[in-house]
Amino acid sequence: MMAETKYVNLNKVYTKRGDKGKTDLFGGSQASKASLKVNAYGAIDELGAFLGLVRFYSKEEDIKSLMLELEKKLLIVGGFLASDEKGQAMMKVKIEEEDIRFLEEKIDFYNAKLPDLFAFILPGDTEVSSYLHVARTVARRAERAMVALAETETLQENLLKYINRSSDLLFILARYDAEILQK
């Protein structure tokens, strides 16, 4: 599935600047591929790939739909992280408080269906819950990378909140898949 973006031309895949350890940022500047910025948006990209696996393997339409929504929002998060100040100023959509409230509502909805938790969880009960647990750990790594980046530059206010809630939701969904859907 292709995400629709009207302001970025992605037809040229290689620039050869990557051969020297640089990558282009949206807005026109470049960054080292070892930078905090590239590390942060790389983790967001990886998270999106795992959400795609969950969406592919899940049999539940609600979870498939939720993963697609998360993937779309991660494009916004990644877009901000992969932009310089000029590029961020051109971004038309942002992560809003309502996006965070949406995640909180989903967390509360699915968590209400689960029994109380009194012990740590070992991932691996189902294929989908395993992918959800991997996605959760990638979301936590992305969050740590974003915190490190926020120590050197200003991030859009809701990005960290959104990734934090995303990892919470992925944890709850992993439990839901293993404990409710598989019974």
TrEMBL record:
A GO BP entry: cobalamin biosynthetic process
Pfam families: Cob_adeno_trans
Name of this protein: Corrinoid adenosyltransferase
Enzyme nomenclature, EC number: 2.5.1.17
Cobalamin adenosyltransferase-like domain sequence ranges: 13-176
Signal peptide (from-to): none
Organism: Fusobacterium equinum
GO molecular function term, any single one: ATP binding
Keywords (A to Z) from UniProt: ATP-binding, Cobalamin biosynthesis, Nucleotide-binding, Transferase
Family recorded in the similarity comment: Belongs to the Cob(I)alamin adenosyltransferase family.
SUPFAM superfamilies reported in the protein's UniProt record: Cobalamin adenosyltransferase-like
Recorded catalytic activity of this chain's protein: 2 cob(II)alamin + reduced [electron-transfer flavoprotein] + 2 ATP = 2 adenosylcob(III)alamin + 2 triphosphate + oxidized [electron-transfer flavoprotein] + 3 H(+); 2 cob(II)yrinate a,c diamide + reduced [electron-transfer flavoprotein] + 2 ATP = 2 adenosylcob(III)yrinate a,c-diamide + 2 triphosphate + oxidized [electron-transfer flavoprotein] + 3 H(+)
EC class of the enzyme, as a word: transferase
InterPro entries xrefs: CblAdoTrfase-like, CblAdoTrfase-like_sf, PduO-typ
Source organism superkingdom: Bacteria
Pathway where it operates: Cofactor biosynthesis; adenosylcobalamin biosynthesis; adenosylcobalamin from cob(II)yrinate a,c-diamide: step 2/7
